[in-house]
Amino acid sequence: MFSIIPGLRHLGTLLNTFLPVLRGGKCHHHHTRPNFSEGLQSHYVLNSGDKIPSVALGLWKTKHREVGQAVKTALDAGYRHIDCARIYCNEAEVGKALKESNVPRKDFWITSKLWNASHAPEDVESSLDESLADLGTDYLDLYLIHWPVAMKKDGTYYHKELTANPYPTWQQLEEMVVKGKVRNIGVSNFNLRKIHNLTANPLKIQPAVNQVEINYFFPQPELLQWSKESGVLLEAYSPLGSDRRVSRSLNLPVVKEIAQELDMTPAQVIISWHVQRGTIALPKSVTPSRIVENIHC
């Protein structure tokens, strides 16, 4: 393996470390599986021992009547990791696409997330059951607390106690693992203070994953360093940049230079950088060509 780059703001140093690795391990395209070079990982091993694919299809803001086809295209392209959430309101369509695929359930990874209004311990299992029913599966590979902010059940007011200490919510996630409804549990959008607040409790199961925004404009080097030292895998949503910043990321001169050198696209360079750095990349697209592009790096 090669050196971890501490932040994408120092992306220029990739010209000395990243290029030789990819050039020496030029990948051969194949339509049924990811095409990482020998220097890049196709999977990571979680603290549970489970292997999680290093690139996933993100489904945030994916519209109805688009998400099903996006999932089918992704599975055909070689994706084996689908990132869902209850609040995305598209899990039923995802489940239908998964059912219609020829990929056995054991061969793909499904993540979902507990929404803010369901943090009360008595609401966790029912919310999980709704996701399981819509997704058409009897277990999730990974279940995350979506945000470190708890709301009342009607979603209008903060739940001060559960926001201050998410341990009661976490205990219910641990119980879902015991019941076999979830294989791994983790968090999302937790900064260092928030995750320290959780792990200060006597947890039976440590967080396997923390899913946060990571990209050129928000590289999060301190959180990445702590996560590596603590055995928590970081997942990067908005890996190409959030909203209008995607175009700016893809047009960075150093990214375009690396892409030209390696006969890759700018998106492939950035996604490969995330994997090189030791994080999971969650690119989102409904455009078939881009879905394929994002996994073949």
Q: What would you say this structure looks like, in words?
A:
This protein has 297 residues and is of the alpha/beta class. It contains twelve helices and ten strands. It has helices at 14-24, 67-77, 91-100, 121-135, 160-164, 167-178, 192-199, 221-230, 245-250, 253-262, 266-277, 288-295, and strands spanning 43-45, 51-53, 57-58, 81-83, 109-114, 142-145, 185-188, 209-213, 233-237, 280-282. The strands form two sheets. It has an eight-stranded parallel beta sheet with strand order 3-4-5-6-7-8-9-10. A two-stranded antiparallel sheet has the order 1-2. The longest helix is centred in the middle third of the chain and has 15 residues, at 121-135. Mean pLDDT is 88; it is low at 1-10 and 14-38.
Map the helices and strands:
Blueprint: H1 14-24, E1 43-45, E2 51-53, E3 57-58, H2 67-77, E4 81-83, H3 91-100, E5 109-114, H4 121-135, E6 142-145, H5 160-164, H6 167-178, E7 185-188, H7 192-199, E8 209-213, H8 221-230, E9 233-237, H9 245-250, H10 253-262, H11 266-277, E10 280-282, H12 288-295
Parallel strand pairs: 3-4, 4-5, 5-6, 6-7, 7-8, 8-9, 9-10
Antiparallel strand pairs: 1-2
CATH level-4 homologous superfamily: NADP-dependent oxidoreductase domain
* Helical run tally: 12
Count of the domains: 1
Q: What's the total number of strands?
A: 10
Quickly name the level 1 CATH class: Alpha Beta
